[in-house]
Design goal:
- By secondary structure, the chain is an alpha+beta fold.
- Among the domains are: 15-58; 92-136, no CATH class.
- It is 35% helix and 10% strand.
- It has a two-stranded antiparallel ribbon with strand order 1-2. Strands 3-4 form a two-stranded antiparallel ribbon.
Length: 136
């Protein structure tokens, strides 16, 4: 006969050896295999793009660099109304006209003109201002 001691059953328990992260609030279960898979996919994409960048960077460019002409920085476009009529038009010129009766501060005007046009004779300009006629 068998005694009570020999009737004991052997119970095996299965334990999960994987890394598992569980978040109690949403019952989110992310296993290590998923994390590893996503990491290696990301790593492969980075590797493919870096190979592409190195390949494209090593190609000799057949494009020739062309020098771009500088445009005027103080250029103003023409002003047109809705019907296509010019309200103001930009005209390039090297001369200016002054109405002496509209001058507020003569000394300040002469100083500014001297800075803009250093080669002009300003004694002649002073004489023209005193005549009170429009001059160029």
């Amino acid at each position: 006969m068998m005694s009570k001691k020999n009737n004991e059953n052997l119970i095996l328990e299965n334990y999960e050896n994987e890394f598992s992260y569980q978040l109690d609030k949403s019952n989110l279960n992310i296993s290590f295999n998923r994390i590893a898979f996503i990491f290696f996919i990301f790593l492969m994409i980075c590797f493919i793009f870096s190979i592409k960048v190195v390949f494209l960077g090593s190609l000799n460019s057949k494009l020739q660099k062309k020098e771009v002409e500088q445009t005027k920085t103080n250029f103003r476009a023409d002003i047109i109304d809705n019907n296509g009529n010019f309200l103001a038009k930009t005209v390039n010129t090297l001369t200016i006209g002054i109405k002496p009766n509209l001058i507020i501060n003569e000394k300040k005007l002469l100083i500014k003109l001297q800075l803009i046009f250093p080669d002009k004779d300003f004694n002649e300009i002073k004489k023209k201002i005193k005549k009170k006629n429009i001059f160029v």
